[in-house]
Design brief:
By secondary structure, this protein is α/β, with parallel strands linked by helices. 40% of the residues lie in helices and 17% in strands. This is Aldo/keto reductase.
C-alpha cells in the first residue's frame, strides 16, 4: 500500500483519516476532558480535518467539549454532526425524532454548543420510520440554503433510502460501519450505490469497537458490555480472529490497529476511516498508518486473518439492529 490519497468530501480534500469523538463523552466508560481536548488539538495539528460528533453523545456534552476544543481553530475542522436520537435523564435511548421542526430545534442547540455559525455535514443518525426520508432531506436542504448547514449526509442507510434522499438533496457522504469485522456494505448494494452516485463513505467501527487491539468493556456503563460480539459465547471466537490479525500485522511491522485501518484505506479513495482515539498516543498510532508502506500481500494477509463473515455475533443488540435501515436490506 502506497501513501493513501486524500479523501474528497464536502468540496474539500481531507487527510485520509477522521476523528470520531463519541468515546470522549459516552459509551466507552469515563474519559478525561483535558486529554480529550489534547487529542482533538493533536489531530488538527497533524492535519486531520474531518471531526465527527452527535448531538446525543453525552446528551450534548460531546458537542460542548468539541466546541471548547475548536475555539480559535474552527476553520481547521470539517465538523460532521448526527442528530435525532432521544435520551432520558439516565442516559437511556427513548426514541428517534426527525420531524422538520425537531431538526431545526436540534440544529439550533448544536450551533450553540459548538460555538459556530454552521455545521459542515448534518445527518440523521438513523433513517426514521415515521418521517419520509425525502422530508428529512428537504428540511436539511432548506437549512443548507439558509447557510446554517453546508452539506447533507446519511448514517446507516440502505440503498433505497440513499437514492430517495439523494434525489431531493445531494447526499455528500454516508456514515456506516465498515471494517474487517463488518463488511455487509459490500454485499447489500450500499457501497455499489454510493459509488454509482459519487457518494463517499465515512467508515466507523474500523477497530471493531476495540476487539482489534484488545480493548474490552470497562463496566456496566460501557455499551460493549451488552454487545453481542463481546458476549462470552462469541468473545473467544472474536479474540482468536484478533490474535490472527495481530500475528499477520507483526509480520509486516504494523500494530493490529494499523492493520485494520490499512485494510479500510485499501478499499478505495472514496472511503474515509474514522478512529475513535481518546488519547494522543492512540491517535499517533492511527496516524502512523498513513506512513506505512505495506505491500499488497500484507493487505491480503490481514484479510485472510479475518475472513469475511467470520466474526461471531451481530454488531448491535437486537433492538438496535432493528433500527438500522442498512441491516434491514442485508436481512431481506
Amino acid at each position: 500500500m502506497s501513501s493513501p490519497l486524500p479523501r474528497r468530501l464536502g468540496g474539500r480534500d481531507h487527510l485520509p483519516l477522521g476523528l470520531g469523538c463519541m468515546g470522549m463523552s459516552d459509551f466507552y466508560g469515563p474519559a478525561d476532558e483535558a486529554t480529550s481536548i489534547a487529542t482533538i488539538h493533536a489531530a488538527l495539528d497533524a492535519g486531520v480535518t474531518y471531526v465527527d460528533t452527535g448531538d446525543f453523545y453525552g446528551s450534548g456534552h460531546n458537542e460542548t467539549l468539541l466546541g471548547r476544543a475548536l475555539a480559535g481553530r474552527r476553520d481547521r475542522a470539517f465538523v460532521a454532526v448526527k442528530f435525532g436520537a432521544l435520551r432520558d435523564p439516565a442516559g437511556g435511548f427513548v426514541g428517534f425524532d426527525a420531524r422538520p421542526a425537531s431538526i431545526r430545534n436540534f440544529l439550533a442547540m448544536t450551533l450553540k454548543r459548538l460555538g459556530t455559525d454552521h455545521v459542515d455535514l448534518y445527518m440523521p443518525a438513523r433513517v426514521p420510520a415515521d418521517v419520509p426520508i425525502e422530508e428529512v432531506a428537504g428540511t436539511v436542504g432548506d437549512l443548507i440554503r439558509a447557510g446554517w448547514v453546508r452539506h447533507f449526509g446519511l448514517s446507516e442507510a440502505g440503498p433505497a433510502s440513499i437514492a430517495r434522499a439523494h434525489a431531493v438533496t445531494p447526499v455528500a457522504a454516508l456514515q456506516i460501519e465498515y471494517g474487517l469485522l463488518s463488511r455487509s456494505i459490500e454485499a447489500n448494494g450500499v457501497l455499489a450505490l454510493c459509488r454509482e452516485g459519487g457518494i463517499p463513505v465515512t467508515a466507523y467501527g474500523v477497530l471493531g469497537r476495540g476487539l482489534i487491539g484488545g480493548s474490552r468493556p470497562s463496566g456496566a456503563g460501557d455499551f460493549r458490555a451488552h454487545s453481542p460480539r463481546f458476549e462470552a459465547a462469541n468473545l473467544a471466537r472474536n479474540e482468536a480472529l484478533a490474535a490472527a490479525l495481530a500475528a499477520a500485522a507483526a509480520r509486516f511491522g504494523a500494530t493490529p490497529a494499523q492493520a485494520a485501518i490499512a485494510w479500510v484505506l485499501s478499499r478505495g479513495a472514496d472511503i474515509l476511516p474514522l478512529v475513535g482515539a481518546r488519547r494522543p498516543d492512540r491517535l499517533a498510532e492511527a496516524l502512523a498508518t498513513l506512513s506505512l508502506h505495506l505491500p499488497a500481500e500484507a493487505i491480503a494477509a490481514f484479510e485472510a486473518a479475518v475472513p469475511d463473515g467470520a466474526v461471531a455475533g451481530a454488531r448491535y443488540a437486537p433492538d438496535q439492529m432493528a433500527m438500522l435501515d442498512s441491516e434491514r436490506v442485508a436481512a431481506a
